[in-house]
Design goal:
Elements lengths: L1 H14 L1 H6 L9 H33 L5 H45 L11 E3 L6 E4 L6 E5 H6 L2 H17 L1 H14 L7 H19 L5 H13 L9 E2 L4 H11 L6 H30 L1
Parallel strand pairs: 1-3
Antiparallel strand pairs: 2-3, 2-4
Helix pairs in contact: 1-3, 1-11, 3-4, 3-8, 3-11, 4-7, 6-8, 6-9, 7-8, 8-10, 9-10
Keywords: Hydrolase, Membrane, Metal-binding, Metalloprotease, Protease, Transmembrane, Transmembrane helix, Zinc
Protein name: M48 family metalloprotease
GO molecular function: metal ion binding; metalloendopeptidase activity
Length: 296
């Protein structure tokens, strides 16, 4: 009975309080790739713990072969709750994924009609007739779009345009949309009184930082920083289902400061990856160790 309680408590902890606390540790943003691994391992561990809590209670009851009916009734309720958790995850994944893909497909079709090409934005970039400076990408499995407005092309220098386009292509190349989609699914699947919005917000920031790092590798750090400020001044963002270079005002200063940090932070990255492995191993340990003790 102890193992299901521990796993249930771990699932609640990893779904709510832990992400809220981790989001306050801003130093992890200096190693965005390792930080992303930690966030992903925490999310996966929360799911494993939630599912494992019910399954461990069911298997424990089956092995004990208790003569009383109450343990079997409790195990049945636990199995039902486990099925409910899995059902919510599957339903959330279906709804979020279906909506995002439909919106992106519709927007790509609209872009094919209204967008044009411009020599200032090479590489098949779709250019919108909009005076507000905006740049974003529309992900897709087979068909993708990088979009920039005329207002952005008019305000940005050629180097800044190149940096912004590199930022958007980094999103598409790394499929950051799938990372955000996974965290959106988890956020909607867990009850609001359990889940924390901090995980989704922090992951959104981290994917932007990763794209910033990729775009600034060729000495375009200063150009990208200036471009981000210019895009943010326009107060325009891309559609909610897209990934926009400007992001939001609350994270702009953070991203510009991180652009200026060129140190590798190898020790911190190693610590975060090791912590990610430990977090992911916790649910497995809670299930396996009692089983091994029972064999001794």
């Amino acid at each position: 009975m102890v193992t299901p309680l521990l796993l249930g408590a771990l699932a609640v902890l990893l779904a709510g309080p832990a992400p809220a606390l981790l989001a306050r540790v801003h130093r992890t943003r200096h190693t965005p790739r390792a930080a992303m691994v930690l966030w992903q391992s925490g999310a996966l561990a929360a799911v494993l713990a939630a599912v494992g809590a019910g399954l461990s209670l069911v298997t424990g009851t089956a092995w004990q072969r208790a003569p009383d009916l109450l343990p079997y009734l409790t195990a049945g309720i636990a199995l039902l709750l486990t099925a409910l958790v899995l059902g919510r995850l599957l339903l959330s994944g279906h709804l979020v994924g279906t909506d995002l893909r439909a919106l992106r497909r519709r927007h790509r079709d609209q872009l094919d009609v209204v967008a044009r090409r411009d020599a200032r934005a090479p590489g098949g970039t779709a250019v919108l007739e909009n005076d507000l400076p905006v740049a974003y990408c529309v992900p897709g499995r087979h068909v993708q779009r990088v979009v920039v407005s005329v207002g952005a092309l008019d305000r940005l220098s050629p180097d800044e345009v190149s940096a912004v386009l590199a930022h958007e292509r980094a999103h598409l190349r790394a499929r950051h949309d799938l990372v955000l989609e996974a965290f959106s699914v988890l956020h909607h699947a867990f009850p609001r009184w359990v889940s924390s919005a901090a995980a989704l917000a922090e992951v959104r920031l981290l994917v932007e930082v990763l794209a910033d790092r990729a775009a600034s590798r060729d000495g375009r750090c200063a150009a990208l920083g200036r471009a981000l400020v210019t895009l943010a001044e326009g107060r325009a963002t891309g559609p909610g289902f897209a990934l926009a270079a400007s992001g939001d005002d609350s994270t702009l200063l953070v991203r510009v400061r991180l652009l200026a940090d060129h140190r590798p932070h190898r020790v911190q990255a190693a610590v975060l990856v090791a912590l990610a492995g430990a977090v992911l191993a916790l649910p497995t340990a809670f299930v396996v160790l009692p089983w091994l003790n029972g064999l001794v």
